[in-house]
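quick one, 479 residues, struct below
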Amino acid sequence: MSTLDALVQIIANGVKDIQSKSAERGMPYPMPETPPSPEGEKLQSDLAADAAPVIAAAWQLIATLKHPHTYLLELGTLTYLSGSMSAAEAAYVPDVLREAGTKGLHVNEIAAVRNIDAGKLGRILRHLASRHIFEEVVPDVFRNNRISSSMCTGKPVQDMVRSPIDRWDDTNGIAAFVSTQAETQRGNAWLAEHLLDPAMGHSQESNEAPWQRAMHTKLTLFEWMERPEHALEMRKFGISMRASTSSDDSIVTTRGFEWASLPSGNLVIDVGGGVGSLTMSLAKAHKHLRYVVQDRHAVVQEGERLWKATMPGFVENDIVRLQGHDFFAEQPITNADVFVLRCVLHDWPDKYASKILSRLRDAAQPTTKLVVMDAIIDYMCRDSGAVADIPGAAKPQVQEPLLPYADSATGFMYGLDVGVMTIANCQERTLGHFVELLKGAGWKVERVCRFEPPLPQQLVCSPLAPKAVLSTVQHTAHL
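---
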């Protein structure tokens, strides 16, 4: 069987299987034109593993059928897609069209909400519609589809106009995440020049990345956001962190680490937890535990405001405490039952990530657990590399001619890996890399809990005995 035949067969059989499983649940698989619904969202989440090989085959089929010149030209312009999404969000287009209803709205009326150029906005929306984000129903009249509706905040547009900084409050974080790309991707245009710079190209410092070159600053992204003039950026960045947990809070709180089995009163420390997006999900489901959310003082101030507005009673009744703390400094809490690092380590190069982990090891009791929630990058070859015999480490591969891991081939993590490189010289990591990094800081990976993207994976760790701790982190080429 030829590669083309194999890809077509994978797509045909996969689609048939998905349709059959959807029918068993009494509903058709949602299309872009299908109105958003909790049932449709859950169906897609539940069938994500079934859909991944089909999506991977579709992408590979496109790459196979396209002329290489055309394929590269199209990929070279994808950066403008992200800019268009950020622009549409900044113009409140998803919520304006939500209020307009199924008939849609002329671009002149959409643009008038934020007093922007209608001709330019129309071209931006047409670009997005070409990728099935929004729908152009007649010339210059656009309406939401299921995909663009996911960017809605649900807030009245009049309220958004009156107070732009509040528009992401109490949302799932998707709109905020889309908007953050306007800031975080600025270094992308400088990536090649930066890598070729003999002075800066090899730097592993967080304030010497392409983003700093683009912004003409020596501040890290987080220091930059803490400036008073960037209050809006600070607000939306914290809320955007919900985008990888709010896709299904019940999965985060009921699968993976055994939160429910922890004894009443156990103390969970969300280290570098931002405004507490993860802890909000955990605290709702597991009220028998106590929580501390630690982050920089400026972030904690924003978190206190957000908790009181969206989850009243938790902070006031001391179920949750927000604490200003620099995770490179000595950890002040030495009686933690669980430390959590959610999407923290990928923000830091190895030498800084190791220091964060070492501070937690120094403060840990023998029974303390560390739960690292982060992406695990797969190799794009079928040799998965040498990884310790850890429960959950092995990941099933899909059939050839597909790339070995369908969810990785279709996901956004490799793009995010390059993205965090441009922001702060940091990275996503392979499992082997994580094991060595954690071992060097005094932690043993006990097991890996796997989740469907975009949810991060979980590495459950325990403290190594002091004699087993490596004095330095050894990195080899296979990491």
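Residues 77-166 form a domain with the Arc Repressor Mutant, subunit A fold (CATH 1.10.10.10).
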